[in-house]
Amino acid sequence: MKYNHQFAYCKIPYINKDGEKILVWNSRDGFVPETFKMQGIEYRRVNLFVAPKPEYEPVIGDYLFRDLTKTEIEIYSEQMENEREKFNNRAQFRMWKKATLKKLQNTPIVVQMQKSKIANEGS
Question: What is the reported pTM?
Fold first, then answer.
């Protein structure tokens, strides 16, 4: 199957400056960043060929890319209002906010699979 993005449905290797390597599952046919920060540590993509595995199902402990939800973007939008006074005029602020929100909508975040609280209630 042909995808729109090079790393669609791939486990992508990343490395930090201390040499720690992690794999991040790209759970969608979407853009993946060259670098990202997680818990204040920057990770850089290792440019190796990785084959898509659309059938892969992440397990607890796996890292994965996901898009921000509409609710998360709305929260960021509200928080951005606190930045208004840093701009010379309202038009500059609106342009910055619009561009920033567009970037957020197109940039995935990294999360780590965790046990569901609902699943644990029956245990």
Answer: 0.74
